Amino acid sequence: MDAQTPAVLVLPWPVGPDEVTGLCAGVRALLEGGGGERAVVCDVGGLGPPGLAAVDLLARLELAARRAGGRIRLRGAGPPLHALLDLVGLRFQVEGQPEQGEPALGVEEAVVTGDPAV
């Protein structure tokens, strides 16, 4: 893994309460051992149907990452998980989606001639 490639953590399912602590420690260890990008990619494709247990797990992982000076990024999150995270007010960076405020790839901003430069 080079300095530009974030670590990947594949989340198992089901995750018991005992395993959450270990996963949080794993996120902290990956961030402390990494050099470049301060992010851990969490592959959530195997989490199964989204529910409050998945929301709790992701919130705890994000908190652990932030305490270690980083963030988590979701990979493989389907529309039902996106909808549930939006419903509870949690925002995560998702692979394949532009960051908030960033234009989507391949989209160029239009320029109206005659507008003064900012």
From TrEMBL:
InterPro entries: MlaB-like_STAS (IPR058548), STAS_dom_sf (IPR036513)
Xref: Pfam families: STAS_2
Domain MlaB-like STAS: from-to ranges: 11-90
Gene3D superfamilies: STAS domain
Name of this chain's protein: STAS domain-containing protein
Species of origin: Streptomyces dangxiongensis
